[in-house]
Amino acid sequence: MAVAAEQAYYRFVVLFFNCLLTFGSYFCFDIPSVLQEQFQGNLTCPNGTQHNGTGHNGTLDCVEGLGMTPAQYNLLYAIYAWTNALVVVVAGFLIDKLGNHFGVFVFSLLTVLGSSIFALGSHFKGTPYLLPMMLTGRLLFGSGNGSLTIVQNRITAFWFKGKELALAFGLTLSFSRLGSVLNFFFTQQFESHFGIQWTLWGGTLLCVLGFISAITVSMLDKVGMKQLGLDGVIQQESKKVRVQDVRRLPLRYWLLVLTIMFFYNGVFPFVADASKFIQDKYSGYSQQAAAYIAGAVYDSSLVLSAAVGILIDYVGLRGVFAVGCAVLTLPVFALLAFTFVPPLVSTIWLGITYSFAAASMWPSIPLVVPQATLGTAMGLATSVQMIGIGLSNLVVGHILGTKSSELKIPLWRWQQMMIFMLANTIACIVTSVSLNVVDRKQGGTLNRTTKRSPVEHEDRQPADAAPLLSDEPGNDGSVN
Q1: In which element (H, E) is residue 66 found?
Q2: What span, in angstroms and rounded, lies between the C-alpha atoms of 86 and 335?
Q3: Taking the CA of residue 47 as centre, how many other CA atoms within 13 Å lie in the half-sphere pointing to its CB?
Q4: CA distances to 94, 154, 198, 217, 441 from 383, in Å
Q5: Distance between CA 107 and CA 45 in Å, rounded?
Q6: Which residue among 49, 371, 416, 432 sits deepest, i.e. has the most Cβ atoms within 10 Å of its Cβ?
Q7: How far, in Å, CA of 283 to CA of 281, rounded?
Q8: d(CA 339, CA 342)
Q9: Rounded to whole angstroms, how far apart are CA atoms 359 and 169?
Q10: Cα–Cα separations (whole angstroms), residue 388 to 223, 294, 404, 415, 432
Q11: For residues 301 and 296, what is the distance between their CA atoms, to the nearest angstrom?
Q12: 3-state DSSP call for residue 42?
């Protein structure tokens, strides 16, 4: 009789709690985006607080808030991204060395601590302590959340490799984006009733839910590996992982990483400022309506990710989808920069291409590196991604200006920002085309591997990835 861990239901139970790991942290990540006017609002308002942001006469009313400048606000996102860039490489290596159980506990705890300090910092508005405390909170939060995603992907890849891998990645993305979607739908209303401080503490409470899920998935993963008799094997393979092996990661991997970075450079920095952009450029949108429209990027992703994952599991063509996503994203920023087409069209469109990109790009990494070093590879990929996003956030902050946002940001500044997003998308097209050329020369693994060809996948992996582990012939470093 097969043990429980060998049954399909077991890996989907693992997947459920694995999905919950990042639900709360993704909710917290974009709270500043929804409440951008409150973060950049005046410390005091003579006639009371106006939460809708835009008056009936088309001018901005006074919005009471934390008094940040646009540059300081974008720094909250930049510090998150750059912290990720520094921490995730070390985190990925430690996860490979010390295991998933170490990773989920430590990094989920960091998200709780970071979100707590961030919320606490909001109580110090009008003092010199506000910005340092909130930046420290985002730093710790970024250290935990980016690294937690690596563990999440590592667990997903272990339990679903050669099975429903793209579907599993799609579902984890859907749960994460569910947190983002709920944030865009409810945070502004919650803030209008309870204030910014209690709103940030509510986000912290959701991070605690992730910590509870981390303990649960850690136990399930440990019990499952023991039942499969693989816990000892993974420990042996982990001992072979060396830092210097990073130099021997295949060219396909690096092209894939650059493709991911340039695509996300156009998504995350845009969403961070989208709510304010919509209110500044298009007339008649309240802060709440603008938040809904900005959140449509994640709404589309939430709805489509699982279905797109199933599709890619069956047809493969990951490299082709990567090129298609980049090409089809170009019109999004062109519409936003040069036309007055309703912004909802662009945000839904971006959400669709983002869904296909996430379901095709990230699940490609386990196809070109072995399981035992997947944490290191994911860490490096996340690091490069976050370096790019952090730089993009700083560039966007510089483009939009460093003065208080009491008045509308000029439309020519927003147009320059969208042109910058276009430039990143064009770079993504170049790297994704190069990825397909190299992949075809090396056997076409990314485009040919499907759920129906697991044996072929396992046979192809060692030649491409074995040098990461050792120079011994025939050692593929895989445990699945």
Answers
A1: none
A2: 35
A3: 4
A4: 15, 16, 32, 25, 27
A5: 39
A6: 432
A7: 7
A8: 9
A9: 7
A10: 38, 21, 26, 20, 16
A11: 8
A12: strand
Between CA 441 and CA 153 the distance in angstroms is 27
Distance in angstroms (rounded) separating the CA atoms of residues 84 and 102: 18
C-alpha 384/C-alpha 5 separation (Å) is 35
Place of tokens 């690294």: 147
| Structure-token pair, residue 327 | 């090409």
The CA-based dihedral angle spanning residues 36, 39, 45, 49, taken in that order and rounded to the nearest 10 degrees: 50
Indicate left, alpha or beta for 162 from its phi (over 0: left) and psi (-120 to 50: alpha). Answer: left
Tokens 């340092």 appear where? Answer: 132
Q: Let me know the angle formed at the C-alpha of 299 by 298 and 300, rounded to the nearest 5 degrees.
A: 90
Distance CA 465, CA 17 (A): 30
64 forms beta bridges with: 42
Q: DSSP assignment of 85-151, as one string? A: HHHHHHHHHHHHHH-HHHHHHHHHHHHHHHHHHHHHHGGGTTSTTHHHHHHHHHHHHHHHHHHHHHH
- Amino acid found at 118: F
Residue 202 identity (one-letter amino acid): G
Q: For the chain, how long is the longest CA-to-CA vector?
A: 76
For 35, the token pair is 């409440």
Rg (C-alpha) for the chain, rounded Å, is 22
With CA atoms as reference, report the closest residue to 92 among 381, 407, 418.
381
pTM across the whole model: 0.69
Chain-centroid distance of CA 169 in Å reads 12
How far, in Å, CA of 218 to CA of 202, rounded?
25
Contact 278, 294 (CB under 8 A): yes
Q: What is the dihedral of CA 366, 369, 370, 372, to 10 degrees?
A: -90
Handedness of CA 268, 271, 273, 278 (dihedral sign): positive
Burial class (CB in 10 A: 0-12, 13-18, 19+), 40: buried
Per-residue pLDDT tens, the chain, 480 aa: give them.
455 666 777 888 888 999 898 899 989 988 888 888 888 877 676 654 444 444 433 444 677 778 788 888 888 888 887 787 788 878 877 887 777 888 889 999 999 999 999 999 988 887 888 889 999 999 999 888 888 888 888 888 888 876 777 788 888 878 887 888 888 888 888 888 888 889 999 999 999 999 999 999 988 888 887 877 765 555 555 555 555 566 667 888 899 999 999 999 988 889 888 888 998 888 888 878 888 898 888 888 888 888 888 888 888 788 899 999 999 999 999 999 998 899 999 999 999 999 899 888 888 888 877 666 777 788 888 888 888 988 898 898 888 875 554 467 788 889 999 999 999 999 999 999 999 999 888 878 788 877 665 433 333 333 333 333 333 333 333 323
Answer for the pair 138, 51: CB distance below 8 angstroms, yes or no: no
